[in-house]
Amino acid sequence: MVESANRIYAIKTTAKQERTVADNIEKVTREQKDIHVVAVMVPEELKGYVLVESPDAIARIEQLVELIPHARAVVQGSTALSEVAHFLVPKKAVTGITEGTIVEIIAGPFKGEKAVVKRVDTGKEEITVELYESMIPIPITVRGDSVRVVERSDEMS
Fold it and tell me: Residue 113 in contact with residue 127, Cβ under 8 Å?
């Protein structure tokens, strides 16, 4: 049997069930040897969809979807790896954070505190902030993934 090139299919899922669907795809394909799945991807930016790489035709993927809870349908057509390759590159934690941005600290000893960004170090993926409610402005350096943006500096006018 000559195996054709792999295609990437998008599977529509129930909201916030992408990870569950991906786990179930792995379990079902382990049991169902006639359905071939090479890779499963759950991009953070693509809410409500799971990407599946397979040499099989779309009809086979539709059969797979019927076996999996929270999987709704297969988007018609397939895509090339070049179109989804940007999902494979990790995004910097400090992307979109600039000086003057108001953030909430979501991890560490200052969890729940709001702060103003004073400096961004993209190389180390760290930001230096000053707490909002503190009487004395003390700079605190935290990891970029330890904060959540509350208000961007360009929104403040």
Answer: no
In this predicted structure, the answer to whether residue 77 has a pLDDT above a threshold of 70 is yes
Q: What's the pTM?
A: 0.63
Tell me the DSSP string of the chain: -PPPPPEEEEEEE-TT-HHHHHHHHHHHHHH-TTS---EEE--TTSTTEEEEEESS-HHHHHHHHHTSTTEEEEPSS-B-HHHHGGGGSPPPTTTT--TT-EEEE-SSTTTT-EEEEEEEETTTTEEEEEESS-SS--EEEEEGGGEEEEE-TTT--
Residue 119, strand partner residues:
128
Residue 69 CA to chain centroid, in angstroms?
A: 21
| Rounded Cα gap, residues 149 and 96, in angstroms | 9
Whether 25 and 52 have beta carbons less than 8 Å apart is answered as yes
pLDDT value of residue 1: 39
The pLDDT tens digits of the residues spanning 86-99 come to 888 877 667 778 88
